[in-house]
Design goal:
By secondary structure, this protein is mainly α. 92% of the residues lie in helices and 0% in strands.
Length: 64
């Protein structure tokens, strides 16, 4: 009985591994995309910082 279970698990794992393994090219492509997105988020952080700074300056001008 354990041999049958082992064979079924082996077949299942071999099928799953053949279709879902990432190659080095896949990983490098994903890394490039992450680097590009990091640059976009850097710009976004600066823009948010400027908007918050202007909001605080406007608040300070109105009440102080």
């Amino acid at each position: 009985m354990s041999t049958i279970t082992f064979n079924a698990q082996r077949e299942f794992l071999s099928e799953a591994m053949d279709t879902s393994l990432a190659t080095r090219a896949d990983i490098e492509r994903i890394e490039r995309k992450l680097i590009e997105h990091d640059a976009k988020f850097d710009k976004l952080q600066w823009m948010i910082g400027i908007v918050i700074g202007l909001s605080v300056a406007n608040f300070a001008k109105q009440y102080f």
